């Protein structure tokens, strides 16, 4: 079966197909012998790059989809997915898009009801959301309801790919131009036929679903917005806006695109109304109050190179370069605020940033002062590392953990910590060992004691 990794079959009844209860679907499917009376769906359960179905289908099997055909496909597939998921949407297409490579759907929350696929009454598949329910509807069910022949399955909030055969003369029924395009595509593809690639992007929550739809609408506009944020010293992606703060992880500013648009000065009403041309989308993005034309970078450190097929993004890079040159030659621009400073105030994150940086400093101080070697020297315990560990654990218990120890050192100095260490040593009664005892207890190394401290510091940073 063309090298497929797993096979799922539907029982054929009359002119349609009825799925088995999903719990028994694969086990019973595997017991069916190959037969013309059984419809086959081939499933790939592995990560694939580039051409998802390249191991079984030629690239020519997935022709570019004319806009009229794309709209018809969307009108057919969207209601089917709405039977399976509570939230289903197709991102707005890019302005001036001449044709399409695939159909992208972003979905969330499997519906709580029984799903009957085309066919007479019989066994049906049941989806019951609950604590144990996966984020996605079983891929076999999705493949069956949209009539896919092959699919690349990705569980959880990831994207699965489905290859849906194009019925013969389907494009011809739409128009003469489309019919000619179909004939050409079938000639190029050969005996295997031609397919639509339908990608189903599953989200874990309605909030994630909304963000992903916005960021992936209008072609490469989300990437363009990200580049503008990058020029302003921030990071914008489908998960929201972040404040880079090396060497620490980025500080989350907001996950709300309503807030993010307001901050950058982008009109949400204009975004919702849509863009008729790429230039209109470019001008909308460049309307941000943080765009400094003479200093706008389209390449260099921190800016990723994009694939050549990102034509809208490539067009923006050229447009922005011209925009920058014209601004330099023209009149001086007005005041451009510092986006990083403005973000801390707008999103009320300044105190959070200061708190985190102070915490990081305390951790660095702690790592250099409260070490196994230092405690050993202060207590004269020699190679009695088990005793060193006991004392360090006792200090943590007395002061309330590594964070409090770091604060003590930052405020009162190393000598104050040394006094606490000696006091804990006296309380525990941990004293230097004889030379014989030392040799017998050298199995606990200083590296192990320090490693435990480093682990504690890492846990604090999570």
From TrEMBL:
- The protein's superkingdom reads Eukaryota
This chain belongs to which protein, by name?
Answer: Uncharacterized protein
- Can you name the source organism? Leucocoprinus birnbaumii
